Inverse folding.
C-alpha cells in the first residue's frame, strides 16, 4: 500500500466508499473509518499503521495546498 488510492481500495473491500466533495474532508473521514475497522479487528495492525501513515501524509499535503 503506497497511495491514497490504495487506502480507498482497502476501505472499498469493506463496502466503505468515502466522497464528501473536498479532498481533506475525505481523508479525515477515511481515517475515522480505518480506525473503526482496526478496532473491530477486521484489519491487522501493520495494515492499519501503513494506511494511517498514508492518510497523515496526504492530509499534510492538502493542508499545505490550502495555506498557499
Amino acid at each position: 500500500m503506497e497511495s491514497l488510492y490504495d487506502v480507498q481500495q482497502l476501505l472499498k473491500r469493506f463496502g466503505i466508499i468515502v466522497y464528501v466533495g473536498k479532498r481533506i474532508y475525505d481523508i479525515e473521514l477515511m481515517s475515522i473509518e480505518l480506525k473503526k475497522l482496526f478496532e473491530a479487528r477486521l484489519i491487522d495492525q501493520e495494515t492499519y499503521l501503513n494506511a494511517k501513515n498514508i492518510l497523515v501524509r496526504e492530509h499534510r499535503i492538502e493542508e499545505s495546498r490550502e495555506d498557499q
